[in-house]
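To the team - iron/sulfur cluster complex, inputs and output below.
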Amino acid sequence: MAVLTKRLPENAPGDFFVDSTCIDCGTCRQVAPATFADGRDASYVHSQPADEGEAHRARMAVVACPVAAIGTQAKHTFGAARAAFPEPLEDGVHYCGWAADSSYGARSYLVVRKRGNILVDSPRYATPLVERIAALGGVRWMFLTHRDDVADHGKFRRRFGCERILHRADVTSATRDVEVKLEGAEPIVLDDEALFIPVPGHTRGSVCLLYRGRFLFPGDHVWWDPDRRRVHASRNVCWFDWRKQTESMERLAGYRFDWLLPGHGTRVRLEADVMAGEIARCIARMKRA
Ligand code: SF4
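Output:
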């Protein structure tokens, strides 16, 4: 748990606080933006919750935080906050919360569907989350967007018997036993709802999942920047090849979608035409970077 003696001075006075162990993953800012904001290298409490609704979101952030850097001075019960994950977004797509430190707090998502649920990247293997996922039908496939956000993939495999999917170019010693290794640079159909789109650049084997032609899970290939209010990709976190990442983005521009659900950075829903314009402007900036 967060420690009061490590409370960051930027926190607004009052109950909730962030301590100095924060890794600036942004999870709390996504979950409870009314309470948490982006500081220089860490999040902080910009406003204490004003009502029970905001307090509930702040408690959800406590649950989701990968390093237990959020604390409260008052005693709270967290049952409702734990039960809130996976959080429904739209059309069976859920946000898992319960971020894992080993994935640097990356977001993961559960797609609930008749053809078999897909867990996109790995949340923390936490019993309350695992029980909720089981109640939603378990996990048929675990799609790993790239090598960095695999966290507790082995535990989910053992619990649900899911087939794990990762591009061969991103397989490491920690993932050598994944069941499905994607190959090549061409899109790969899982079924008529799910398409894998290789997007080498951030890593050699980065892959997006496009679900129902509406939901794009890009891993760390691209995300929404809430401060500049634009779709964004960063050369600073390109671990493989920026030119290839730019080319991958140009190929991605050939698809229409209205949800962008990244591993890091913020998710966003825009009208498909607006999203297409955002992607085009992002490509133009990438070419200049
Ligand atoms: S969720 Fe935790 S680690 Fe991530 S930014 Fe918030 S306080 Fe920091």
